[in-house]
Structures are given as structure tokens and as C-alpha cells.
Amino acid sequence: MPERSLEKALGNQIRTIRRQHDLSVADLASAAGISNGMLSKIENGGISPSLSTLQAISGVLQIPLSSLFASFEERQDCSYVPAGKGLSIERRGTKVGHVYQLLGHVLRGDVAVEPYLITLRENAAPHTSFRHSGVEFLYMLKGDVHYRHGSEVYHLTPGDALLFDSAAQHGPEKLSDQETSYLSVIVYPRTEA
To answer: What does the record list as coiled-coil region(s) (predicted)?
Structure first.
């Protein structure tokens, strides 16, 4: 029997919304005109309910029919990058010795998230004029760097984290003489195309 991933996601969503409305299985089943057993099978992902049944359930819960499928649709956007296989890219303004490895991407939603593994090689040049929309989170993995954000400079070593408004000028100002790497996650509102 094929895996019922859509049915399971749909059932979980109905159960979650039913509980948010503080309704019992019997309450929702009765109001939707179905049996307790049928609602239980729907919530457990055991059957594929008809559209009219889903419409009755969404009507009782006072939500759009499409929102019952929201959790299934959200789960479809997943990005897996095996160790060492991130896409090496050159971001606008990238300087010599700065290596950006994109660790994943999200295709939909109102927010864009760009996770990078950044490696600063021994020959890397300081560059403190990066500036873009959103917020950025840095987590130091190896080496150390003096990182400028606006008028402040932070000495970052492994385990240190920095979260900042990336509209201010920022970037590595003083580099160590060894290879340095850190995780950078940039989050910004996605613009309409």
C-alpha cells in the first residue's frame, strides 16, 4: 500500500485545528455530519476523505478549505545539502579569498533565507562594506575574525554568535593568519517578482 503522506498531513492539520477550537472528535464529527469513526480515520490519515466531507469540516472550523492542505504544501519545500556539497557561489561584492558555500534554499513564502558556510582563506582581503536588506546571523566555527557592524567591531572566535541588521555596513575587518570559517544565515523579505 503506498504511503499516505497527503492523508497524514491533512489529518494532522484537521486534528490541530480541531484542538485549537477546543472541539472533541464527537463535536466536530456531529457538526460536519459524519461519524466519529470516519473523523478518527481522517485524522489518523487512514482514508482519503471526499471533497464534500472536507468542505463540511472546514465549514464547521470556519477556515478556508485550502488551509487544510497548508501543512502538506509547507513540507514540500525542503532543501538537503550533504556535507561538503554546498553550491559554491560568488555573491555580489565577494572579495578574493572569501568562499561562499550555499547550504540550502527555500523556494516559497514571504521570507527568503540564505544559509552560507563562509570560508576566509589565508589570502582573504578585509571587506567591511557589505550592505543588504534583512538580518544576518553569524556563528563562528573555526579561526577568528574582527567583524565590523556599523561603528562597532566584534572579535569573534569559535562558538561566538552575532545577529545584526544587515542594512548597516558590515564585514570582516581584521583577519587572522589562518583559515577562518563561519556560518552566515541571511533572512530578508522576499519581494514580488
So the answer is: none
The model's confidence at residue 68, banded by pLDDT at 50, 70 and 90, is confident
- Assess contact for 180 and 122: CB atoms under 8 A: no
How far is Cα 89 from Cα 91, in angstroms, rounded to an integer? 6
176 in Cβ contact with 145 (< 8 Å): yes
pLDDT category, 192, cuts 50, 70, 90?
A: very low
Q: Does this chain's domain 5-75 share its CATH topology with 87-189? A: no
- Identify the three-state secondary structure at position 160: coil
Q: How far apart are CA 84 and CA 101, in angstroms?
A: 9
Cβ contact 149:164 at 8 Å: yes
The phi-psi region of residue 167 (left if phi > 0; otherwise alpha if psi is between -120 and 50; otherwise beta) is alpha
Coil, strand or helix at 34? coil
What top-level class would CATH report for the domain 5-75?
mainly alpha
Per domain, the residue ranges of the chain are 5-75, 87-189
CA distances from 82 to 102, 104, 139, 187 (A): 11, 10, 19, 22
CA distances from 171 to 129, 162, 177, 178 (A): 6, 12, 17, 17
